[in-house]
Amino acid sequence: MFNRIALLRADGNVSRKALAEAVGVNPQTIGYLERGDYKPSLELAMKIAAFFGVPVELVFSFTPFESVTDALKRVQEAS
């Protein structure tokens, strides 16, 4: 499973500890999730998405996310 937790945390200037406290897990769990060493329960995935105010499919995916660089290139080419 792939995720954008680290990207969302960096964008929101949120520490692992702050996110962990908000969703009720250990900060190490956030690290495991970010590295792909742990798959979240549906409840945890939804709590993380809600914390960032985005749909769960924006945070988690079964397929790799497009890189930010590639997405920006695609947008620039389309305009």
TrEMBL record:
Signal peptide: none annotated. Residues 5-59 form the HTH cro/C1-type domain. CDD domains: HTH_XRE (cd00093). GO terms for molecular function: DNA binding. The keyword Magnesium does not apply. It comes from Sphingomonas parva. This is Transcriptional regulator. Keywords: DNA-binding. It comes from the Bacteria. InterPro entries: Cro/C1-type_HTH (IPR001387), Lambda_DNA-bd_dom_sf (IPR010982).
